[in-house]
Amino acid sequence: MVELLEEAGVEIVFGYPGGAILPFYDELYHSTKIKHILVRHEQGAIHMAEGYARSTGKLGVCIATSGPGATNLITGLTDAKLDSIPILAITGQVATSDIGTDAFQEADIFGITIPITKYNALIKNADDLSRHFEEAMKIAMGGRPGPVLLDFPKDVQTQKTTVRKATSLKIAKHHYERQTVKGDPQEFAEALNNAKRPLLYVGGGAINSFASAEIRALAEKANAPVTTTLMGLGAFPGTHPLSVGMLGMHGTAYANKAVLECDYILNLGARFDDRVARKHDFAPDAIRAHIDIDASEFNKRVNVSYILNGDLKDAVREILPFIKTTDRSGWIQRINDLKKNHPLDFDSTKEEIKPQDFMKRVYDRTKGKAVVSTDVGQHQMWAAQYFLFDEPNTWLTSGGLGTMGYGLPAAIGAKFGNPDKTVICVTGDGSFQMCIQELATIAQSKLGVKILLFNNNFLGMVRQWQELFYENRFSESQWTYNPNFVKLAESYDIPAMKVSKKDEIDKGIDFFLKDDGAALLEVMIPAEEKVFPMIPAGKSQKDLIEFKDLAKLKK
Amino acid sequence: MKHTLSILVNNHPGVMSHVSGLFTRRGYNIDSIAVGVTDDLEVSSMTIVLNGDETIVGQVKNQLLKLPDVLKVQDMAYASSVQRELVLISIKISEVNRSEALNVCNGFGANILEMTEDSLLLEFSGNTRQVGNMISLMKHFGIREISRTGQIAIAYRNQESG
User: Fold this and answer.
1) Crossing angle (nearest 10°) for helices A253-261 and A329-341
2) How many CA atoms within 13 Å lie on the side-chain side of A545?
């Protein structure tokens, strides 16, 4: 297994040893090609692998032992499945003779992970190892990427085999070989050519398919504004004049209004997720078109009229020659008016620190050149709104599963993959404490991960919903105790500072970004601060609430 | 509407879990499922009958094709394929109605596998409707025990005449 990993070009793995995986670890001990990062919890290992994969476009690998080690990977596997992140998880398993006997640290990880992996296998015989390995690697990276798991019994780990390379695979080729694009690119392009008010809607598939350049060429050639999903941020430059930013529940008002006003919408590697589209009334006046590598995404939640099935990069290349450059200055002007009249907004008159203002300033200071990971909640949305991503693979967030605890380990994984880049984990006081043990991994590897911690002593997003929809009944959303985060970081030898007032902001950011080393900056923000705009759950773009509507809403 | 999907899968222990797990997870309803190995010992044939409109069945097909162990999925149209189920029924009989029961069995082409003084074990195969009919007829005598397979299907070679 170690040799197979080396031959596959795996340079780094994140893991945690234990009884049933010891023979593997004994082999790893001798490897000079693979760097192993010892984590503090297996969930940390898999989120690191995800952060590494998302920020580099390569496969992320994590290792755990049997039983609890393996079950601690479950959240990460589900996360990677929903966000289409290529992950190989290798788990130890009790010896084949003990399987099924409820042996010590035995868990049916094969059975447990069936719905949350693209492929999984229990390797019952060392002769099958190379085949399972090759199938797993091909499926993780091929087509729509995702997580795979190899369960590796302890006795099989020490078996000798002469089968070094699989002679034949048992999976159909369409699972891993790049398929030609299915559909008529000319007819597809004509629909866009005929549109007066087209809108491109770009999702995470654009990042997995490395299609940024093609999408930019398409937008510029067609004069079509571009909105991205939470997962698609960075696939089209956030600072581009045609960008209308993120759409959906907490997307910009102008992106969501453009969805209502467009007469044609082209989904590029997104999936009409429920945070974006309320089923079939999405973009009600538009002809809908969809390009996706996964045929099961077509007409799943929203019906579309035009379909291209294939790799996004290939598909966009195929339609580009048929795209006519059309003058759409009226529509672009309308978009610019929407941007001017419905900007992202917050109350900046108070003396408190506003997280939106703070995010903007960090963005300005880093000139947008950082890799940013987030946890889940209000801080995630503020980061998505105010940090404009110009490059793909620089935005790491748990979009589908919404996994609190993702941010810190994802940033660690990203820093290992991008040692020369500034890597910032934007987090909140709730999420941060879910994988806080990985501060030790930062300290141990002397890793320059920057942690921007927004603290409101609340689960802010839960509080926001309770204020808006549950008449201020703040049921169990307030932390009546929080640790001293500065002292906590310092105990891990991570320099830390806390800022509470507006006039401390610059000093805080100076401290935070002064060198390449690790740092934690705790930013105290008001608990009442809310994320706007907002489309209430189950409502459509028509029901968008902007910051300026808040006063109305309260009445 | 009922659809019959004929699926070729790799013949190994985890496949049933993968396929049935998919149906549970996505909320699709299966009427019946029948599995058996094909002439190639490495490949099994699975026949699934499910209820749903064209959109749902299209989704099911696409989702099935995403499973690495699924090799082929074929939607069997009723008119252009033959469908069969097998049922084994043990019924109560007495001297009074024995000949009536035998008549019914003969009339419908059911095989008699065992006959005792007070019971009759029969085997019958047909499409879902015929098997259903047979079962209701046998209820009249009183059913001791029943065992029914899922539906299997195969497409006619000549699709023109379908």
Assistant:
1) 140
2) 15
The domain tally of chain B equals 2
The residues that bridge with A90 in the sheet, in sequence order, are: A63, A150
Whole-angstrom Cα distance, residue A311 to residue A358?
A: 38
Inter-chain residue contact A170 with B17, CB threshold 8 Å: no
Cβ–Cβ under 8 Å, residues B103 and B63: no
Domain that holds residue B11: 2-75
Q: Which residues of B touch A118 (CB under 8 A)?
A: 66, 68
CA gap B146, B138 in Å, rounded: 10
Q: 3-class SS at A220? A: helix
User: Looking at the complex, does the CB of residue B63 fall below 8 Å from at least one CB of chain A?
Assistant: yes
- The reported pLDDT for the residue numbered A555 is 57
Q: Verify that B92 and B140 share a domain, yes or no.
A: yes
Which two structure tokens, joined as six digits, stand for A250? 């907490």
Q: Tokens representing A455?
A: 């603290």
- The CATH number assigned to the domain holding B19 equals 3.30.70.260
| Pairing of β A306-309 and β A423-428 | unpaired
Q: What are residue A344's phi and psi, to 5 degrees?
A: -60, 135
Distance of CA A382 to the CA centre of its chain: 15
Chain B residue with minimum CA distance to A136: B68
pTM: 0.94
C-alpha B135/C-alpha A509 separation (Å) is: 79
Q: For chain A, what is the largest distance between any 2 Cα atoms, rounded to a whole number of angstroms? A: 75
Nearest to A215 by CA among A385, A392, A82, A398: A392
- Return the top range by mean pLDDT from A396-405, B22-31, B64-73: A396-405
| Catalytic residue list contains A485 | no
Closest Cα of chain A to B31: distance in Å?
A: 21
Does residue A118 belong to the interface with chain B, where contact is any CB pair within 8 Å? yes
How far apart are alpha carbons B56 and B75 in whole angstroms?
12
ipTM of the predicted assembly exceeds 0.90: no
Shortest alpha-carbon distance between residue A270 and chain B (Å): 17
Would you state the structure tokens that stand for residue B162, as one six-digit string?
Answer: 């379908």
A11, A27, A105, A490: the catalytic one is A105
Q: Determine which one of A154, A257, A415, A530 is catalytic.
A: A154
pLDDT at B162 over 70: no
Nearest CA in chain B to A302: B55
B158 domain residue, yes or no:
no
* Closest Cα in chain B, distance from residue A301 (Å): 11
Per-residue model confidence as pLDDT tens digits over A378-437: 999 999 999 999 999 999 999 999 999 999 999 999 999 999 999 999 999 999 999 999
A461 among known catalytic residues: yes
| Spacing of C-alpha A53 from chain mean position | 10
8 Å CB contact between A37 and A69: no
Domain membership flag for residue B63: yes
Residue B103, domain CATH? 3.30.70.1150
| Strand bridging mode A496-499 / A519-524 | parallel
- Contact of B20 with chain A, judged by CB distance below 8 Å, is answered with no
Contact indicator for A125, A64 with CB cutoff of 8 Å: no
Query: Which of chain B's residues have a Cβ under 8 Å away from the Cβ of A174?
Result: 65
Q: Any idea which residue has 């409101």 for tokens?
A: A456
Residue-wise pLDDT for A449-503, tens only, equals 999 999 999 999 999 999 999 999 999 999 999 999 999 999 999 999 999 999 9
